[in-house]
Amino acid sequence: MRKSDIVSRVNYGSLSVDVQEHNRIIVVDAGFYAITGYTMQDVMEQQLCFQDLFVKEDYPIYAKELSAILAIQDTAYLEHRLQRKDGSITHVFCLGKQRKDENGRLIGEITLTDISHIKRLQAKYNETELELEALIQNLPGSVSIVEIKETAMHLLHATESYFRQFGYTREEYMATSNGGILGKLFYPQDLPILNQQIEAIVRGEKTICMQVRAVRKDQSLMWVDVRGQYLRMQNGNPLFYLATFDITKAKQRDEELRLQTERYQLIAEHTDELFYDYDVKHDILNLPQNYLPVRQGKIPAAITGYLKRSIPKKVVHPEDYPRFLRELMSCLTEEKKTSIEVRIRMPDMEDYEWYRLICVCSANEQGEIVRLFGRQSSVDNLKRLKKTVSEDKRIIERLSTTDPVTGLLNRVTFKERCGLYLEDADSDACYALVYSDFNDFSYVNDNFGYDSGNTMLYEFGSMISASPATVFGSRINSDYFLCLMKTGTRDELEQLVRERDALFIQRQRRKYPTSEIQVATGISFIDPRHFDVTVDIDNANLARRKAKTGKNDLCCVYYEALRAARAKEKNIAAELHGAIASHTVELFLQPKFMMDDLQIIGAEALVRWRNADGTYRMPSEFIEVLEKVGYIVDLDFFMYEEVLRCLRRWQEDGRPLVPISVNFSRLHNNYPDFVDRVIGLARRYQIDSRYIEIEVTESAFASDAEQMESNLRRLREAGFSIDIDDFGKGYSSLSLLMGSPIDVIKVDKAFVDSIELSEKHREYIKRMCMLIQATEKEIVFEGVENRNQADFLCACGFKKAQGWLLDKAVPVSVFEQKYVGSPAC
Ligand code: C2E
Ligand code: MG
Ligand code: MG
What we know:
Blueprint: H1 3-9, E1 11-18, E2 24-28, H2 30-36, H3 40-45, H4 58-72, E3 75-83, E4 89-100, E5 106-114, H5 116-125, H6 129-137, E6 142-148, E7 153-158, H7 160-165, H8 170-176, H9 191-202, E8 207-215, E9 221-234, E10 237-246, H10 248-270, E11 274-279, E12 284-286, H11 292-295, E13 302-304, H12 311-315, H13 321-333, E14 337-344, E15 353-363, E16 369-378, H14 380-401, H15 411-423, E17 430-438, H16 441-448, H17 450-466, E18 470-477, E19 480-487, H18 490-511, E20 519-526, H19 533-549, E21 555-557, H20 560-581, E22 585-594, E23 600-610, E24 616-617, H21 619-629, H22 632-653, E25 660-663, H23 674-684, E26 692-697, H24 700-703, H25 705-717, E27 721-727, H26 734-739, E28 744-747, H27 749-754, H28 759-774, E29 778-782, H29 787-796, E30 800-802, E31 810-811, H30 812-819
Parallel strand pairs: 20-21, 23-25, 25-26, 26-27, 27-28, 28-29, 29-30
Antiparallel strand pairs: 1-2, 1-5, 3-4, 4-5, 6-7, 6-10, 8-9, 9-10, 11-12, 11-16, 12-13, 14-15, 15-16, 17-19, 17-20, 18-19, 22-23, 22-30, 22-31, 23-24
The protein binds ligand C2E and magnesium ion (2 copies).
One magnesium ion (MG) binds near residues 726 and 782.
């Protein structure tokens, strides 16, 4: 018997029955007519029921078995006898399923397979091994026949392919499986499945269906799908024929898929990642069941009409939507992998968050894109982090390049930028570095507080920035400003700077009417081809310093001689100590006198620096420089010692002594041993402190008034007299006079000079001096040059003075001759 003989004779038919109406047959197919011999007319007219197809006594047994099966599963597969319309009997396998129709009625769907030919074969070969062999050779797959005993399945027959799939020959297989006990070949962990099947068969089950792992000869595992059908009883045991399929590859795929799904689920549960797939043809977006909004029922797992209902438009940020749609459309036309970052609003969320969507397209055999798979993950934190990092960077950049008070560049950055900028300078334009500082900044700081000072700095900075000619502006430090300016001509640039400064001063004076705030500005024009940032800034600074010395015009353009002057300054500092050692620095004395009778009452020590040619350099040429470099402290003590030596000599010579005032710079304040040194030296030279006057300027109180006052108090207690020099030059305050340890006020020459200007000036001086007198301080006028001045002051009752009316500062030897009585004999 050939396989084709069997296949050609197998008939199939199907029918549907209304379970609730005694299994009345409602739908049938052509196969049904062929198997049963009924016609369409029979079915319709006779109201045929399923049980009409049975031999009468068979149906109760069948129905019992069926209901037992349906109690545990919704599909039943039973073999039974079928009675045709003509009364003849045939054998069928009957596969039945139950379902509900749209009206909720229970429908049975049954497939009949005519197996009468197998039955006939069975009958024909009547249980001989040969006939079974023949049977299984003609069935598809790796077929075997097994006998089910109470505890095991025994292989009776099998095709060669059956043994081959396990890697054995028939003999090897039989030996390994201990005479064909199937359990011997199965993977031990899967034995319970086999045992369950055996138990079910013992209970009457007529089919076998299992997927288990078998162990190949080479000990590798393989997955087999085993399907079996009851054949008959033999020696009291049921025989089954089995079809065995190697499904290892499919299982591996399944397993990989399962692991992958598990991994994805794990990721999805522990991260905010979302895996999706989009069914292009049906326009359905599928989301995982365990995705939280799906689990919570906020969105369906399958979003139908995804594009048709413009779902993306509702969730993607409007600004990102066109980009998103473009990308999506391109995914639908070509097979590719893509990634896009867009803002998405999730259910329940008010705000959009950044997500990265990764998408892979998959095409069918015709190359049409049928599915998009992808992952969506939040990159919001990353974006936020990136943003804060870049914001922080910006802040750090700003802090490290700009001045926090004015917002202008700091010195280092200014220099860098100028260098870079001038590399591409415009050859027709005029460039300059403009260096400015305030003349009376400490006044605002001291009297109105730091905030006012800062506001002033800010306002000047703003004016620099606002100028259309400014390229870069910078606050170098304190009240020092530097900017790079660009104009068409030099005149234009100079005028802009003057206008800027004038406007600033005007505004500040309005705010602080009592201040004498000024801006001193130096301009250094640049040749961009030979720009040297250090030299050019230095030039602007020299011009600024020069400007500061001016009276009315506080703006100066750099010129070469300034550099020479600076070189001279440098020389002064370098030469001072040598000059002291070699006594080219000399003590001069200028007498102080009573203006009415021109009697000498004292002297002031003034320094003179002798040049090689015998001429002298005046203090104005070097004092400022020495103050700048701090050497003034050494000079003052040298002068003080010279005074002490002089007094000592007079003392030793028995000449009458006159008090001598010595100028002490405010820098001494920085030295804690200042007072001790002054007292100590006087002791060393054994000079009574009442012959020494300490002259300090008002400005000495500006930096550290407390320290200054305590120093002066100690000196005063030690018997020294304290003189305030140049009174009225700065911002004299009477409260300073009231509270401070001061004995003498030296009124600045400027007041004396103003005596001859007007009655008003005279009246002013008179009143001021009366006020000073009220504080019980002595008054000495500086720079009295003529009789008129002397007469006026004397008339007011102020007689002490120092000035050319009597004498200039003269060398000690001259002074001695003129004013100090001859040595006692
Ligand atoms: P000062 O302490 O106010 O000294 C008075 C200045 O006025 C002296 O200038 C003196 O020569 C000048 N003078 C006096 N009477 C007249 C006058 O009738 N007409 C004119 N036009 N000038 C007169 P000098 O000697 O050039 O000193 C200038 C300044 O240099 C001094 O002003 C003082 O502040 C400073 N100085 C001089 N020697 C020393 C010193 O040894 N140490 C310190 N720290 N400063 C000194
Ligand atoms: Mg003086
Ligand atoms: Mg003076």
